[in-house]
Amino acid sequence: TGPVATAVAHPNIALIKYWGKRDEHLVLPRTDSLSMTLDILPTTTRVHRDPEAAHDTVTLNGRPAEGEALRRVIAFLDLVRDRSGLPHGSVVASENTVATGAGLASSASGFAALAVAAAASYGLALDATALSRLARRGSGSACRSVFGGFAVWHAGPDSGTGAEADLHSYAEPVPVGDLDPALVVAVVDAGPKAVSSRAAMRRTVHTSPLYEPWAVSSRGDLTEMRAALLAGDIETVGDIAERNALGMHATMLAARPAVRYLAPATLTVLDRVLGLRRDGTPAYATMDAGPNVKVLCRRTDADRVAEAVRDAVPGCTTRVAVPGPGARLVDG
Ligand code: DP6
């Protein structure tokens, strides 16, 4: 490892959602979550550590990063500087294939790639678990993008906070049976979100009377999800994912003031997904901090599902994703 390192990471979509922290600083979640890493929309991040530099220079898609995005990258590099003992600044260049802030998991691929590249650039020899814990500090969902395929993020024992709890909160791969899944990513609106997921999750935890009941039921969902994945039972996997996501959005709708990411077009897609199921095609929807919908289905049904969804909403674009690789170093 030299002072320059480049890493690629892919986004992941949660089938059991992460929504709510018990420690904001360490990014420790309230509940376990489980996701599929996609094979599309990667982020490539290059970190060039400069022993002469006192500050970081960060560009996102060729433009200087500013505001909250810049603050989060610098705070993340501060962690890496602390651990490595190297106080050096860096030039960071990140290329994203997706519009940031649209609920399409760009922070997950972004911080997973940054964790891998920065660790290498600052000479930290970290195994996958340690990289996952590091990526988590940038954005919670990023800890799952360290791994390919399906991954579970352990919340860790809920008693602890501090260094001890930090050790126990990381992602790891989940065993999956004979499943041939696809996620149809349906973009109904590519604009930035009105409320960041970080702020929305804080408000939900603090004000929503539905939050605790969802968190409790999500723990049961995770147990059932693991069994359904192992059994290769796409109907049950999809059913659990859909109810977990709708439940998460219900907690937000009950927050004060309400957080509503779902748009009319989102509901139109949900209706179309119901219609597909009624006609015998297993298809199930999940939504994150935005109006876009990801539809879980069999790989062999994916093109037909994508077409049905595009038909339902004028201007909607779709991409078909299958399980993709974990974050890794590349040349460049
Ligand atoms: C709705 O990981 O973006 O996509 O930890 O505050 O950076 P921070 O939040 P983030 O939240 C993702 C929330 C979600 C569900 C999920 O991916 O599990």
UniProtKB/TrEMBL annotation:
Gene Ontology cellular component terms for the protein in this record: cytosol
Domain Mvd1 C-terminal: 184-316
Protein name according to UniProt: diphosphomevalonate decarboxylase
InterPro entries in the cross-refs: GHMP_kinase_C_sf (IPR036554), Mev_decarb (IPR005935), Mev_diP_decarb (IPR029765), MVD-like_N (IPR053859), Mvd1_C (IPR041431), Ribosomal_Su5_D2-typ_SF (IPR020568), Ribsml_uS5_D2-typ_fold_subgr (IPR014721)
Ranges for domain Diphosphomevalonate decarboxylase-like N-terminal: 9-158
Domain of life: Bacteria
EC code(s) of this entry: 4.1.1.33
Pfam families xrefs: MDD_C, MVD-like_N
Alphabetized SUPFAM superfamilies for the sequence: GHMP Kinase, C-terminal domain, Ribosomal protein S5 domain 2-like
Single GO term (MF): ATP binding
UniProtKB keywords: ATP-binding, Lipid biosynthesis, Lipid metabolism, Lyase, Nucleotide-binding
Gene from which this protein is expressed: mvaD
Sequence similarity: Belongs to the diphosphomevalonate decarboxylase family.
GO-annotated biological processes: isopentenyl diphosphate biosynthetic process, mevalonate pathway
Species whose genome carries this gene: Streptomyces paludis
